[in-house]
Design goal:
Length: 448
């Protein structure tokens, strides 16, 4: 079968789709690069907010519109939260909740008798390109590695624990083997992901029990992949000396941390059942910045949580300014049926949520600009991604996009004959334009 994989939401969904693609390819199926070219479409959905549910529904409609003849399989958190609703859309032939997600390659197999095309490998897609294989690194530079799923926390705003269950970690040896394969396949960067990444390994039985610090150290000591990046880390449960890892591997462990704060007052943190305080979060950030030169720090924030007074918001705004985040995902609170906070009194009016969201966005835009401006004039390694685009006013030049080790987006020009894709190259950061830096490549002499 020709199968197209799509996803919304977190990096974990990207990792899960990559693993599914590998299993499907191993079973003899082809991975299509567009919905229009597919016989089967798999959509891995999100339900972390009401807006995410709305986007998931919209994505199902759009995929069916793009290819009305394809069979659609919907999985992920929206499929778990509202399976009947997901099944009601035209084109949807299968709904698989999160417990069934890892069996999708088996659940799709009965369709093979009708949809298998023995000549598919020899043919081209409608755009003239061959069907992709799961391990094709042509347009891949960064791999997302799912190391654990589920969460044992009971944050009062979060539906994810109900949808993904309790924390379940993969054995360390299996993760090391996967990263080794990816490095051999040409990936330049691996990103460790999970619903609650910081809890990794503590649920494993007996001698297999470990933690994220040990996993990170094992990957850097045993693998030669150039970059290792950590995705979202809850601001607790990190092992003693965790930030010392950056002292041991300063050139390979990326100086970028995403630490979800959610609220900037102790009263709101308690109401959210977050396992940190303003003081403990401040200490964590100070320790991280002391240990990791050139650290870029990003976060998640909720505004308008039930009971948030004007004074709470102003106090939280000041704390966010103090911490100098480079970027933040800012969510106006939306009640999720099945969570404790949905039953809380003192729900904040929509108009107040909107106004507070606008002010928080404006603040983080200012702190983010200041954080990015610090690096203008520096030279940093950039991993170049995608495909260079022609420059209208500069014939013979291509414009490339990439990210520094501390996850700053960079654009730079290169001659049309210079393929930067999947290369790590030193780049001087010359100018800042909003959230993007314009840079100058410092190409090795033998490539000029």
């Amino acid at each position: 079968m020709r199968i197209y994989l799509d996803q919304l939401g977190c990096r974990l969904n990207y990792s899960e789709n990559n693993s599914l693609a590998a299993r499907l390819a191993a079973a003899g199926h082809q991975i299509a690069s567009s919905a229009e070219a597919a016989q089967v479409i798999v959509l891995n959905t999100c339900a972390v907010t009401a807006q995410a549910v709305s986007r998931s529904r919209q994505a199902v409609r759009q995929l069916h519109s793009a290819n009305p003849d394809a069979r659609i399989a919907v999985t992920g958190c929206y499929a778990t939260l509202q399976p009947e609703n997901a099944a009601s859309f035209p084109g949807v032939s299968l709904v698989a909740d999160n417990r069934q997600k890892e069996l999708l390659h088996i659940l799709l197999e009965p369709w093979s008798a009708e949809l298998d095309d023995p000549d598919a490998i020899a043919r081209l897609q409608p755009d003239g390109t061959p069907f992709a294989q799961a391990n094709d690194t042509t347009n891949r530079t960064r791999a997302f590695i799912k190391v654990q799923d589920g969460c044992n926390n009971k944050c009062t705003f979060c539906i994810v624990t109900a949808l993904r269950g309790e924390s379940r970690s993969r054995p360390l040896a299996k993760i090391v083997a996967e990263v080794e394969q990816l490095a051999a396949a040409g990936y330049q960067e691996a990103v460790l992901t999970g619903v609650h990444l910081g809890s990794y390994g503590r649920d494993l039985p007996g001698s297999l029990a470990t933690d994220l610090k040990q996993l990170t150290a094992a990957l850097l000591a045993e693998m030669d992949i150039p970059r290792l990046r950590l995705s979202s880390l809850e601001p607790w449960e990190l092992a003693d000396g965790f930030f010392d890892l950056w002292q041991r591997w300063p050139d390979r462990l990326c100086p970028h941390l995403h630490l979800p704060l959610q609220a900037g007052t102790d009263r709101q943190l308690r109401a959210m059942a977050r396992r940190c305080t303003v003081a403990s979060f401040r200490r964590l950030v100070a320790d991280a910045r002391a240990a990791i030169p050139d650290l870029i720090l990003t976060t998640d924030l909720i505004v308008g949580f039930p009971g948030e007074s004007d004074a709470d918001f102003e106090e939280g705004l000041a704390f966010v300014e103090e911490l100098r985040f480079a970027h933040a995902h800012i969510f106006p609170y939306s009640a999720r049926t099945g969570t404790a906070a949905a039953r809380f009194a003192e729900q904040v009016p929509q108009a107040a949520k909107k106004e507070r969201s606008q002010r928080m966005h404006a603040l983080v835009e200012r702190t983010g600009q200041a954080e990015r401006q610090r690096f203008v004039g520096d030279t940093r390694p950039v991993l170049w991604e995608g495909q260079g685009q022609p420059v209208t006013n500069q014939p013979g030049m291509l414009l490339w996009s990439g990210h520094t080790d501390n996850y700053l987006r960079v654009l730079a020009h290169a001659p049309a004959g210079e393929d930067l894709r999947n290369r790590l190259l030193p780049t001087r950061l010359d100018e800042l334009h909003s959230e993007t830096l314009l840079g100058t490549l410092l190409l090795p002499a033998d490539s000029r």
